[in-house]
Amino acid sequence: MADETNQWKPNVTVAAVVERNGGFLLVEEETADGVRYNQPAGHLEEGESLLEAVIRETLEESARHFNPTALVGIYQYRKPASPVTYLRFAFTGEVSTPEDRPLDTGILRALWMPAADIRACRERHRSPLLMQCVEDYIDGRRYPLQLLHHHW
Fold first, then answer.
1. Which of 19, 45, 75, 134 is the most exposed place for a label (fewest CB within 10 A)?
2. Alpha-carbon distance values, 25 to 28, 63, 97 (Å)
3. Span 10-145: which CATH code?
């Protein structure tokens, strides 16, 4: 039997892929690699379901309430020259108008960007997952939320 204290574990993250009038909701954020674009996204916290996490992260990073309606995809990503692997669950849905509240530390702003503009600035993406999630959304990938089960 393997010792669970020494088991490798990926970082579980969630992301909101939101399209409105041809534009996608993104955040511009400060990272160790400079200012980058990403979907509203973040880490799953202890005691949270995946849906609770994506709702919370979207509110914290964009000041908008998110209502998830479908799963776009599940993605595994390892940043080059890094031992860290991310397991991302990307959801689509609707967002409210922004509230008057501060954004998370490091988030400079939330903005809407057309897919063509997102494709044109790949060097400013936080990771390749940004574009992959947008392309999967455009391709019509939607999976029912009933795929997710939370037991605790």
1. 45
2. 10, 12, 12
3. 3.90.79.10
Q: Judge whether 95 and 66 are in contact, CB under 8 Å.
A: yes
Rounded to whole angstroms, the Cα distance separating 112 from 6 reads 42
- Secondary structure of residue 59 in the 3-state scheme: helix
Residue-wise pLDDT tens digits, 54-70: 999 999 999 999 999 99
Name residues whose C-beta falls within 8 Å of residue 23's C-beta, 6 or more positions apart in sequence.
112, 113, 114
pTM of the model: 0.94
- Nearest Cα neighbor of 69 from 127, 137, 139 is 137
Q: How far apart are CA 112 and CA 19, in angstroms?
A: 8
